[in-house]
Amino acid sequence: MSSALSSPIRPLRSRLGCKTCKIRRVKCGEEKPNCVRCTSTGRKCEYEGTISGTFSSTPCTTSIQDHPLSLLPNTVWRERRAFAYYFQQASVSLGGGLDVHFWRSIVPQVCRSEPGVWDAIIALSDLFESPGQDPRSPSPKHRDALSWYSRSVSAVRQRIQRGDIDIFAGLITCILFISIEAIQGNEQEALQLYGQGVHLIRTLRAQIACGVVSATKASLLEDAIVPIFVRLGVVALTIAHLPVSGLLLDDDPVLVQEFVSLKSAREAIALLSTEIQLFERTCIEYRHESHSSHLHPELMGRQMVLSGRLKDWHTAFTVLIEGLHAKGVLSQQQIGTGALLLTYYEMSFVILATCISSSHMVYDAYTANFQNIVEQSSIAINALARSDGTQPPFTFEMNAGFPLWFTCLRCREPKIRRMALALFRRGPQAQGFYNSAGAAALGESVMMLEEALAARANQGKAESLRQESTNSAVENKAYNLDHNSDVAKADSSSLPVSQDSELAVFVPEEARLGPIGIFRSQDGFPPGTKEEDVAKWNQRRNQTFLRFSRNEYDQTSDTWRVFHDYVPIDN
């Protein structure tokens, strides 16, 4: 360390930057196709080699077919048919009704000049039309989709290597690639692409600030592309630590007075919901680091500001809906969209009201809000159905899945909880980044584990716990799988998931699971795991674990403490 500190300070140099910055021995921002440093000083900007850390370098999860697509019969006809299906069917479901212009106008326009975008569109179309294919024995349509996707990835890489790809075309291709990975169930690849898309957005914003991007493209970025990434981030923030905060501008938020459309109301609640989720995470981190159940006055002030903005949103939304009713009967799409936005409002309201408390019992005061989420979600899901009554296989947009999943985790009223889970399973097979079946199984595991723990506590296994204590403390316990612990002993299999809640029990504080996450043994165990547990579970490299925290009462110190645990769950 001392030698490093004593070494002379040299100018920052870029390994991946443009030729001009390398020659000048200055730090390059690596913006494409022209870096900000060269553009702002009027210098010629040139690149060489591949770009690392962009979506073009993300490995395609599909393999190029043994036979080139161009050698197969009727190739042109199949491509045109795939594009027609995208335009007439897939684009409507992908955009959720409010973004038809983006998916049916902007995206097709770009594909005229970008072959990679064309290939991505027809690949997504075939996957959308025939989802759920077994990759070990793909159908001809699925093989077409994989070939087109590989061809798209190859085309985009070549354009970026030459340095002549339009960055807006790159962002649109990134959105299409996220969709392709997500509909195949490749969650991690989709999340990685999302992070790289955020990087491209920030690069574009830097170029806009320097005046090198036209006002038309700047408007397209902020009005169409950034909102898509924000809405995707709303869905994924709970489980994945996405860089969505990098999309939020530092400008003071404009006070909401009125909405001119359901779309403007949606963009506002998406941004606000994102801020509220980030605020909740900040509160959790503060309690963890400060070992205190009381929040800093600055955080309490921030909560009041967010509460005021959420109230203003609801007032403006109510006025909008009343105005739409006054113009005539609402369409099924308008009814569904209005119901959907209310589910995000109710979810945000509950998060904001409860995040200042370290107790999970506080959620019981918002049962009516959870009930409204379920009721409004039912309306939204019915509106999303296609003409034959089925749900689309994939939706890229905000949908009722996330508020329903939130209800499965945070609401402990058994009937509402089970209704939320049942509705969640009615939705599209893939929502945003996630496979719905996997998310539903995770929500069910949490519910069953909580109720199993509650059954043990209510049978007298935890009679010494004193819920009336007002003292609290936070303690980090090593993650472990102690087979003598309450968690390991809980037999959740004895509590089936059904609409009949007679078997369900009251879930006390010590049985309620806090922030959750999942990990696989092949990715490494959390710090503090016992060696015998690592040795045992490493034999099953694909074993998935549920990681969570819960409050336990310590009689000795008369305090509640936060303990962390993990348990294996079915893959």
UniProtKB/TrEMBL annotation:
The Zn(2)-C6 fungal-type domain, residue ranges: 17-47
InterPro entries xrefs: Transcr_Regulatory_Proteins, Zn2-C6_fun-type_DNA-bd_sf, Zn2Cys6_DnaBD
A GO term, aspect molecular function: zinc ion binding
BP GO terms, sorted: positive regulation of metabolic process
Keyword Zinc listed: yes
Keyword field contains Ribonucleoprotein: no
PROSITE patterns found in the cross-reference section: ZN2_CY6_FUNGAL_1, ZN2_CY6_FUNGAL_2
Protein keywords: DNA-binding, Metal-binding, Nucleus, Transcription, Transcription regulation, Zinc
Protein name as it appears in the record: Zn(2)-C6 fungal-type domain-containing protein
